[in-house]
Amino acid sequence: MDTKRIDAFGFSTEPRQAAQQKFWETTIAAIEANALIAQEKASLERGLLPTPALRGDDFMVASRYVPGRTHALLSGDFYDIVQTEDSTVHVILGDVSGHGAAEAALAVHLRVAWRTAVLCGKTQFEQLCILERILADERADDDTYSTVVSLVFPPGGLSVRAVSAGHPGLLLRRSGEISWVEPPAGIALGLFPGCEDWTATDIPLSPHDGVVLFTDGLFEGKTAPKTRLGEEGLLRLATRHSHLQGQDFIDALVHGAASKSASFGGLADDVAVLHLGWNAENG
Predict the structure, then answer these.
(1) I need a surface site. Which of 9, 13, 63, 178 has the fewest CB within 10 A?
(2) What are the backbone dihedrals phi and psi of residue 60, each rounded to the nearest 5 degrees, phi first?
(3) Which stretches within the chain are classed as H helix?
(4) What 3-state DSSP class applies to 268?
(5) What is the pTM of this model?
């Protein structure tokens, strides 16, 4: 005998139950999909932004990464820090042009290749040549390029050697003062493969100095309809927070840049920031 459930008004409850079941099935599927996206994002983040491979506490690193768009997957910003057996600290920070999964995957390739090159004893110039070759071979679009800055901190803390491939300058923190340092910027990786016009610059350091690297997303946000924060605006912002240390300092930079651009679309690009320096207490 076929029986149907009837509600108080004499209508069958089966269509309503089917709709409720469909709703919950759709909701569960959405939750599972979001959880999978979160797992993939976390895996990608580990590939782009790994834990620094330091050999002790003699070198201090603070870092901050902020996606340029709400709920966006990570894009082409990447960095890595490796301290080799002779206590030299090697640093890379780069920005692959474009946004999307292809750019993020390429950035991971470059980051892993760089660490491998460092561990194999390659020089900064050799490292950039390797990265450019990989970029040219792996990119999906011939117009894709990457800006990169490579730093080497020799033991002793008296200098840092910088090689820039089209990357913005850096901030130098010294005795409460902050200055903008612009190493000669050779051509970005992939624009003219094989050009290799990069130059090494030795920057003198004092024991308590700090070096701050960042991608251009930190200062390219709009602060007015036709005005961006720019390098001078970032330097003013940094000077305002010069009393802060390490992580607090770069957090203030990112928060300040985001606040200034909030009324004009916010940070339009990803932002990666590194605060680097020797631990003078252990020097």
Answers:
(1) 9
(2) -110, 135
(3) 14-48, 101-119, 124-138, 230-240, 246-261
(4) coil
(5) 0.83
